[in-house]
Records
---
Amino acid sequence: MTAVNQVPLLLRAARHEVLERPPVWMMRQAGRYMKVYRDLRDRYPSFRDRSENADLAIEISLQPWRAFRPDGVIMFSDILTPLPGMGIPFDIVESKGPIIDPPIRTQAQIDAVHELDPETALPYIRTILQTLRSEVGNDAAVLGFVGSPWTLAAYAVEGKTSKSYTNIKGMAFSEPAMLHQLLGKLADNIAAYVRYQIDCGAQVVQLFDSWAGQLSPMDYRTFALPYQQRVVQQVKQTHPDTPLILYISGSAGVFDLMGESGVDIVSVDWTMDMAEARRRLGPSVGVQGNIDPAILFGSQDLIRDRILDTIKKAGNRGHILNLGHGILPGTPEANAAYFFETAKNIDKLLATV
């Protein structure tokens, strides 16, 4: 085996090598659309048990690997997982999602947020990532992930999932100094957590700033971008060669600013044409995405055609094929399997079209 073939395809894409096909994985590829996951969830109904018990998290992370052999295996976890280690307790209620009670609304609560020591607070992360590296070898890259400061602050201040974001935006516009203090603490802690994940075996780390798409470009520049940059700069100081990916849901309005974050790869959602994304980011930033997850409810011909369209527009350098958001519950497993199979044989299809 040549040295280049010992490097996972996803890492080669992140290095902007010219490839015959892009690597492929799916956000939320371990989850509710798979019967094997639902069966395990029935036995272990607590999400935090599933994500914070190393044996369970490893098993869940490997379920799509065994089924589909994606080019990236992401650890099963949650963006809120490190919050208790900073003094922000949370729970996840199956029908309601994350709950933070009491939400962070006062100066005293922000003052009480403390430095994260990942080794002490999150020791199972090392076991998960080391085991995944051992299980997949060089056949796939192991991904870690974190929440970005704005999105974590939004959860902490809202106390739950929100549609209006009135509490976090209210703090931003009426008590900006308080919010900046919270965002700064979160950024430093998240940077430490990213470095820890890399030290434990993560070869790529994705930053989810899921709620930053709810900000105007002006407010994104004030409350999201500087703290994305703060995380990236701290990580790159110690781990300059580990690729970082940034994902934002509904990102079209702030897309150009995502490229200023310093990440190596911007994950594109389906509201942006991939050719336009390429043009706007320029050649130095890679792209990930950007198939609409609902396409997987369509015909196999449609799935194939959308994959071909995205890959042609993205080109053969610096592209990771993925969905534009997480795979949806209820997606037919056969269509997920077809997505991976088609993506992994796309070089043959491209040769015939």
---
Amino acid sequence: MSDNSNQDQYQEKSLNYFNSISWLRLNLYNLPVGMGVGIALCLLMSAFKGQWIGTTGLIYQVLFSTVIAFCIVNTIFVSQRIMKLSSGKGWLFLVVYYLSSILGMLIAIEMIYLIKAWLFQEKYHFLHLEDARFSIVVVVIVCTVIKFYTSQKRNMNAKLREKNMNLLKLNQMKTEAELATLQSKINPHFLYNSLNAIASLIHEDPDKAERMTIQLSKLFRYSINQNQESLVTVQEEMEIVSTYLDIERVRFGDRIDFVIAVNEELSKDKIPRFLIQPLVENALKHGLKNVADHALLRIEIEKTDKIVIAVIDNGIPFPEALETGYGLQSTYEKLHLLYGSDYEVQILNQPVKQIKIIIPFTHD
């Protein structure tokens, strides 16, 4: 047997199971409702007559209301099932709806007289036309009211779902716009710093300035040619970082040792685009700016139950009252937009100086 056939059978069994549960729940809910209506009718009739209608009258009214509620609810349930199975709409559904409701009412009337005859040892006569004529008028009115109510409720629910979908789309567009704004800030900021470095090298070392320009072109070509997705693979993000570090190697020479340690199992996992580069830039600009030699900048990406990203350097320790500059602030904003509160940023001086970011795995 094919997989599609097995899947269809499973879905059919699941549908039948949930329909059975829905039918049982519907009847269990309406049983006390019918009994309550019968008791209420009994009290109203007693109040109208000015005397108690008796135990027999109470039993009859409770029985009448319970059976009527049972039959009406089940005929409506059946008609809805017929509509779903046949995809009936418009006049066809209305015909099925009213005919099944009238049939349910006729069955209810005969059931009431049959049960009453059995309880009170009375003779049962089939087909009570006078009750049927009156009941048909009642059932048409009641079913029309129910149909109108359910149609209005369905329309309101559809409009509410549409409104929620539009709101969700607007929130998504807002998030994408904010992320795009952050991205547009990162690129000019990085470009400004890099061009300043190239300008300072043009007269001192033209070859280095040329290499930096080529690497800078490569970095921005990579950025522009992509689809500007908010999330990229770890491998793609590290290509961005590696190109950036190639630029900085030309600038700093042997003064700084750059180390990259990435768990290969994470290469295809997604992380925010341009997340690491601003942190590396901050470490070079602030942490390692006064380190004459043996400077170290290390980037680690490890796997626990989450993704752990660390930018480590052996430069000036973070001050106790750290001011969040542009690079760190943009990191916080980007993480908040993508993960809400499900992320963590740790700024540590011990056991080694580092900025550590912990984010959940993102599943496509």
